[in-house]
Amino acid sequence: AIDHDMTVTIDGDPAKVLILNDFFEPVLDSYQSGIILFFLPLMEEGKHTLKIKAWDAVNNSSEFTTTFMVAKKPLSIMRVLNFPNPFNLKTTFRFEHNLAIQDAEVLISIYTGSGQLVKSIKRTINTGRNRSSDIDWDRKDDFGAHVLGGIYIFRLRITTSNGTRAEKSGKMVIQ
């Protein structure tokens, strides 16, 4: 109905009212519940409030207000792994990070057990909805030759557009 939108108001500011109708997904077989999947805009550090308002099918409204803190966190990489590990022909690097929505450069450097660089994989990722990113490696070195079986070390580094960096390392086995 007119003026019966699902909305979120940020910090009580009428200029920061966002309509959530298109992000609502009803729960199957329920007339009473649903899920709203929506990413809030970037917010400054500090205390903020959200007021969520929704209407039901018989013209009743409900409001909920919550307060939260936005804290600046250093760039962090979590759950870095490659799978399968051990592998023979191909492996996939997977990692998670805490970046807000932005592009970032990922560099994966793969070294022999003695420290010799055999492969550098560079990708630009967009850190939008999915905080996990997958990057494949086909076991070839920088010159296109298959690397020998053995234990290898990888270093994964993320660099943001403002130059912030974080890195993690791991081991993998090629059969």
Describe the SSE topology.
Elements lengths: L6 E4 L6 E3 L4 E3 L7 E3 L9 E10 L5 E10 L6 E7 L7 E7 L5 E10 L4 E10 L5 E6 L12 E11 L4 E10 L1
Antiparallel strand pairs: 1-2, 1-5, 3-4, 5-6, 7-8, 8-11, 9-10, 9-12, 12-13
Short structural description:
With 175 residues, the protein is mostly beta strands. It has no helices and 13 strands.
Structural class: mainly beta
Sheet with the most strands: spatial strand order: 2-1-5-6
Low-pLDDT runs: none
Question: Which term fits the overall shape?
Answer: elongated
Count every beta strand, where a strand is a DSSP E run of 2 or more residues: 13
H/E element sequence: EEEEEEEEEEEEE
- CA radius of gyration is 23 Å
Residues in helices, as a percent range: under 10%
- Strand fraction band? over 45%
Report on the biggest sheet: 4 strands, antiparallel
**Average pLDDT over all residues:** 88
What separation lies between the terminal Cα atoms? 63 Å
Question: If helices are DSSP runs of H or I spanning 4 or more residues, what is the number of helices?
Answer: 0
